[in-house]
Amino acid sequence: MNIVITGAARGIGKAIATQFATAGNNLILCARNIATLSQTADAIKLNNPSCNVHVFAADLSKVADANAFANFCLQWGAPDVLVNNAGGFTPGNVVDEPDDALKNMLDNNLFSAYHLTRKLAPTMIAKKTGHIFNMCSIAGLQAYNGGGSYSISKFALNGFSKNLRHELMPHQIKVTTVFPGAVFTDSWDGFDNSNQRIMVADDIATMIVACTKLSIAAVPEELVLRPQLGDL
After folding, report:
1. What would the pLDDT profile of 13-32 be if each residue is shown by its tens digit?
2. What GO terms are given for molecular function (predicted)?
């Protein structure tokens, strides 16, 4: 299968790519930092010799970069799986965060997925198959202190997913919105997770891969994952 994953150099994106690689899929990975992305690709290929891994450095918050990556992906035909995982987090509150906070969060967390999907979805429609995952957050389900524009952008991504699900349903293309709670990635640097208080990236990856193995009749529209002991 052709598996397209954005934000694939580290964290959740890297975990998703690593798990899809075990089945010998054709991975098409994107991230901003080509050095880190290449290291991830090399590690995946070392452990999975039958897996092809292609990398492309882009800032998907920019329309031109999103279009360029889409064209790169289409060298291998329509994606079977598209994971819109690229994004960022800037803490703040609506009333006192920087003036450009909302624009930056929307560009990174909404428009990156919006523009890439718009370029790739028509090829999936023509093929009448495919599965799109949009990496949202529990911040897209409820407000919280310090969420600010990040939370707003994830609510917007949630709305994008709902509309996409409705539009693509007749074309046999599945859309799943993923709402993770706290996951032990670089953003939690310094946090002591020795007691497994919060989730790990492989937890999210395992669920995404499992969703792709369901029959054509089934789609998990929303996937909410939280630490067993609840949100922090």
Report:
1. 999 999 999 999 999 999 99
2. oxidoreductase activity
d(CA 57, CA 30): 6
Cα 135 to Cα 19, 91, 98, 99, 145, distances in angstroms? 16, 18, 25, 25, 21
Strands (E), the chain: 2-6, 26-31, 52-57, 81-84, 131-135, 174-180, 183-184, 199-200, 222-225
What's the pLDDT at 146?
87
For residues 143 and 151, the answer to whether their CB atoms sit within 8 Å is: yes
Domains for the chain: give ranges and CATH numbers: 2-225 (3.40.50.720)
* Coil/strand/helix, residue 138: helix
Bridge partners (DSSP) listed for residue 163: none
User: What's residue 158's pLDDT?
Assistant: 98
Q: Which phi-psi region, left, alpha or beta, contains residue 198 (left: φ > 0; alpha: ψ -120 to 50)?
A: beta
Please list the helix, strand and coil fractions of the chain in percent, rounded to the nearest 5, in that order. 45, 20, 35
Instruction: Determine if residue 16 is left, alpha or beta; phi over 0 gives left, psi from -120 to 50 gives alpha, anything else beta.
Output: alpha
